[in-house]
Write a structure and sequence with these properties.
Blueprint (H helix, E strand, L loop, with lengths): L24 H7 L19 E2 L4 H5 L5 H6 L2 E3 L7 E3 L3 H11 L6 E2 L10 E2 L44 H7 L5 H4 L10 H9 L3 E7 L5 E7 L2 E2 L2 H11 L3 E6 L6 E2 L9 H16 L14 H13 L5 H6 L11 H10 L4 E7 L6 H14 L10 E3 L5 E5 L2 E11 L4 E6 L7 H6 L5 E2 L2 H5 L3 E3 H4 L4 E7 L9
Parallel strand pairs: 5-12, 9-12
Antiparallel strand pairs: 1-11, 2-3, 4-16, 6-7, 8-10, 9-14, 11-18, 13-14, 13-18, 14-15, 15-17
Helix pairs in contact: 10-12
Organism: Aspergillus parasiticus
InterPro entries: UFSP1/2_DUB_cat
Keywords: Hydrolase
């Protein structure tokens, strides 16, 4: 345990920390519904900060390690042959997730599960965009039925209206290196074999399906794109007895994984996952995309075009340009792409505070995000919302957040789609069924990211879509 955090009180029924030392009723209502609410519980206030993402070299470099680590840090090819190049320190976790990826279909029963409660699909209310994230009582659930009006944290502008003068910008902006842009930070062009692989794209399969209206329709599916994963995870969380409460985004988002041998294009794949939500839900901006998702090369062109239009254009100087390269992209590039298409989004930077580690602040932010879409007048175990997924970045990798859970031992997990890994055969075979898994936790392992994974990082970035259905208050 961190000595600086040793005296931080925790909930008496779980390990969720409360720097204010005052567990509140909202936490018990949300995470411990079985506990009688007639406690003398007073909510406490403790200021904390969630800084909006600053689109500059400072922002991107805050995700990196020191220059000394830049020189000493080593990348390793995954020995499993997936094509990824990961930092040495990340290899054990990477291999562990490969094992979770390969889980075979288990013996199941065909009867629907008998649950004590049912998961609830709800249309979200209009969220306040972490309006109360400066209050540490939110670490205890953030789920009080009525809360006093609080002043919003200061929000910095995240849209760069026009590019700076090149002569002035070059004097203040540092070109990034391997730590931020990956092992191919300095390459001019990717190998021709890889470009041909990306130009060819993934295998497309066409089949006939019966539409909801009973008509027969032609359906196109991509080899690396899997639908209906979220509903499977919802059922698995309901079946997992170790889960106390879980919250999910819209079931319309697709899980998209990388192609064999393509390498580290995780940022592009996460952008594709957000686009899959936009297309399927037909939210404002869906008309910008064709029937199929834009390819990696097309996304590179879209980002370069966004820079030309003045959106986060400092990224071109930081990266030296990304067209035709394997350089890593991040939150700033994803934001530039969406803003250039008129798709509103909000980027935020999350870091260490006086009382909390960065991953605890992250948990608080994500819990608050899902709280906006959930009613407190129910004891349901699993909540399925219509919220968009969240683009999530830490140093060296990005993922897509699709949910959040609290387990009986008090630990919290993000539920994510990781483009490095494809869905296991167990998940694929459970789609469209009501079968009960013999070991749901084993299947869920590849989708969970808890404190053990997240505590290695001091800074995170998230990008939330702000559609007409989930637009933040101004």
């Amino acid at each position: 345990m961190d000595p600086a955090r040793a005296e931080v009180p925790t909930c008496p029924f779980c390990t969720f920390p409360d720097p204010a030392g005052n567990p509140n009723m909202g936490h018990f209502e949300l995470y411990h519904p079985e506990i009688d609410g007639r406690f003398g519980i007073n909510s406490g206030k403790k200021a904390m900060h969630l800084n909006n993402l600053k689109i500059s070299s400072d922002c991107r470099q805050s995700l990196s390690v020191s220059e000394e680590n830049e020189r000493l840090g080593k990348y390793t090819h995954c020995p499993r042959g997936c094509g990824e190049i990961v930092m040495d320190a990340e290899l054990p976790t990477h291999l562990d997730l490969h094992q979770a990826e390969e889980i075979a279909h288990e013996s199941t029963t065909s009867s629907p599960p008998e649950f004590s409660g049912s998961f609830t699909a709800r249309k979200q209310s209009r969220p306040d965009d972490c309006e109360d994230l400066d209050n540490a009582q939110y670490l205890h659930g953030l789920f009080v039925k009525s809360q006093p009006k609080k002043e919003k944290p200061t929000q910095e502008a995240v849209r760069e209206k026009r590019p700076c003068s090149p002569s002035n910008t070059m004097l203040t902006v540092k070109k990034l290196g391997r730590t931020e842009l990956g092992p191919y930070a300095h390459e001019k062009q990717m190998p021709s074999w890889l470009r041909k692989l990306l130009e060819k794209g993934v295998k497309i399969t066409e089949s006939n399906i019966i539409a909801p209206d009973g008509t027969l329709r032609r359906h196109r599916s991509m080899e690396n794109e899997t639908t209906d994963v979220v509903p499977v995870l919802v059922r698995l969380c309901e079946q997992d007895k170790s889960v106390q409460r879980a919250f999910f985004c819209s079931p319309k988002v697709h899980q998209i994984s990388k192609m064999p041998k393509e390498g580290g294009f995780c940022g592009y794949r996460n952008i594709q996952m957000l686009i899959s939500y936009i297309k399927e839900c037909r939210v404002p901006g869906h008309e910008c995309f064709s029937e199929t998702l834009p390819t990696i090369l097309q996304i590179q062109e879209m980002i370069e075009s966004a820079w030309d239009m003045g959106f986060n254009s400092i990224g071109r100087i930081e990266t030296g340009g990304i067209r035709g390269t394997r350089k890593y992209i991040g939150t700033a590039e994803a934001q530039a792409l969406f803003l250039s298409l008129g798709i509103q989004c909000e980027a935020s930077r999350i870091g260490i505070t006086k009382d909390m580690q960065a991953h605890d602040v992250l948990f608080m932010c994500i819990a608050n995000y899902f709280r906006q879409a959930c009613s407190l007048d129910t004891n349901d175990k699993v909540f399925l919302t219509n919220l968009p997924p969240i683009y999530f970045q830490h140093q060296g990798h990005s993922l897509t957040i699709i949910g959040f859970e609290i387990r009986d031992n008090g630990s919290a997990n993000l539920l994510v789609l990781d483009p490095m890994f494809k869905p296991s055969s167990a998940v694929k075979r459970l789609r469209g069924t009501r079968a009960v898994s013999a070991d749901p936790a084993r299947i869920l392992k590849g989708y969970r990211r808890g404190a053990a994974y997240l505590q290695k990082y001091n800074v995170f970035e998230i990008l939330k879509l702000s559609t007409s259905k989930t637009l933040s208050k101004t």
